[in-house]
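Q&A FORM
Asked by: J.P.
Topic: structure of BPTI/Kunitz inhibitor domain-containing protein

PROVIDED:
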Amino acid sequence: NPCAILGTFILEVGSSGPYKKVRVCAQAPDSGLCFGYFERYFYNFRKGRCEIFIYGGCLGNQNNFLTEKECLCILTKLPQPHIPPDSGLCFGYFERYFYNFRKGRCEIFIYGGCLGNQNNFLTEKECLQRYVCTLDPDPGPCECYSERYFYNFKKRRCEIFIYGCCNGNQNNFETEQECLRRCRFHYYEWSPESSSFPDPSLSIPPVMPRASRLYSPVTPRAAETILPRRGFLSDATASPTTC
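REPLIED BY: S.T.
REPLY: Here is the structure written out as tokens.
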């Protein structure tokens, strides 16, 4: 079951890029070969959220869920720092923080006030607590020898690593106490059984959406019927992926 796998991608140590093997949940939505009209959910890997698409009723791929709740089950406790900041659909002007995965730090962006994705934080501290504590220890390119502590997200504890004294990332603390204070007691965890990620638009005054970006409904190919192509038959009520 691809949804049971932690994360939607594999980090390959030593590879040229961090997203060598993209998992099923990063697939583009596929309506299949039939002509039915069924609203389903798919996980939008680029935006980091679940969205509706029209499923034809047969075949397609596994990034296909009957309900938004089923789709959300692919969002594991591991955060998704690869998601770029999303200002949303509204015209507000709110300074927020997002985690810049390539630079390894939290930066400011302007949030419009509605929708967007989960890489959106009110304060730099909140952003750091969410992402920094999941980074692998990075000794940096220098050859100095300095004992530091990093937070081991998988084991939920602070451990020693050897720091080269330059560059690296922010999961790097001089003392175990500092490491625990930053990561152990504040790290936000999410599970499908609890709820979805917090809505970044909460506590923001209503803002008018951008009319040019409003959703326009898709015209059905055939309302609630299945007309298979190429001789394929399938049960349209069956979910291709069950989490």
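FOLLOW-UP: The beta strands are 9-10, 21-22, 38-44, 49-55, 94-100, 105-111, 146-152, 157-163.
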